[in-house]
Amino acid sequence: MRFLDSFTVLSALASTTLGSPFAPHEVLLKPQQASGSSSSHSATATASSTPGTGGNETSGTSAGDGSLGIPSGLLTSKAGIPFGFLPDSATKERMSDINKALGSKSAGYGWYSQITSTTYDDSQLTEIQDDLVASGAVFIPAVMPTKVKFNQINDDLAQQIAKSMQTFTDQGVEVWLRFAHEMNYYVTDGTYAGGSPEEFIEAWKNVHTAVQSNSKVKMFWSPNEASSSDLQAWFPGADVVDIVGMDDYPKAAAATFADTFGDFYNAFAKKYSIPFVIGETGTGSGDVTAKEHWLKELTNADYTDFPLYKMGNWFEYNKEVDFHVVLDVDQDTLGQTKSNFQ
After folding, report:
1. Cβ neighbours for 129, distance < 8 A, ≥ 6 positions apart
2. Residue 108 confidence (pLDDT)
3. What pLDDT is attached to residue 67?
4. How crowded is residue 222: how many other Cβ atoms within 10 Å of its Cβ?
5. Residue 13 pLDDT more than 90?
6. Residue pair 282/41 in contact by the 8 Å Cβ criterion
7. What is the mean pLDDT of the chain?
8. 55: Cα within 13 Å, side-chain hemisphere
9. Of the candidates 319, 299, 320, the residue with the CA atom closest to the CA atom of residue 106
10. 192: Cβ–Cβ under 8 A, 6 or more apart, which residues?
């Protein structure tokens, strides 16, 4: 989400106060674009420191989607949409905490990791390994090139990323790799080291080549909220993208799924028959009514026109705006959240 860039603040804090790497998380929010919806709240860097599977446009959405490796028996909305969360690493939340509160196992487990040199340190991912495996969820790691430019993601670094993903798939975990998510925005605010759309696509293809022999890894293209025309330059191509999605945090109190994601869905999911997944979302404010409305839109709206919608994931953080809908909420709010699911 774009309110205030947190990369510089986090880097300074880590180097002057902590003196060692710490779990990625967002501290500040970034300024919103003029479109009326604010975009993602992905975790930013700490200081010290996968051919497209496609989809079936007529198949509809159901829990336990074999083509994407979504296990059955996980959290699913009453409309049949598998649903996951991104636990707040700043407060050491884990998926086990969310699942305990819900009384169900979440379908997706989102987390963040930064590439800070040409030697990839994946400790930010492995720190949750036990919790992840126990959760049974699909792992959705956002691997962020914060200290290396796109043109530095060569074959060697791509192989390091692939090896990290194999750490999880060797334990039976399905991985949807959100490599360089929100690339279209993070190259403009300083979060990413930088590069052109062409250099991003080359980096993407290097990572895709490195992971393509691992059938349990899917390449998940997840840009920041923007018009489909603006995103065309950043699209790597249907032959190297397994999943598409767009991070968006709508500010409108009565935002709809169709108004928020329809343009993107039609341009990339429907056009190329690629599954659509929301990598992260929440509301542009902490208003409880707005959060309850948006969660219902993500879980139990009319998806007749969106049969490729396969999973939603909620940003369960408290960073300037309190996005929590499961943890640190009153029983009425938790009850409203749980009422959306089977």
Report:
1. 167, 168, 171
2. 98
3. 83
4. 25
5. no
6. yes
7. 85
8. 30
9. 299
10. 144, 145, 146, 150, 180, 183, 186
Q: What are 17's two structure tokens? A: 């106060």
Q: Has residue 242 got a pLDDT over 70?
A: yes
Render pLDDT for 116-139 as a digit per residue (tens, 0 to 9): 999 999 999 999 999 999 999 999
Q: How far apart are CA 325 and CA 332, in angstroms?
A: 10
Contact 173, 207 (CB under 8 A): no
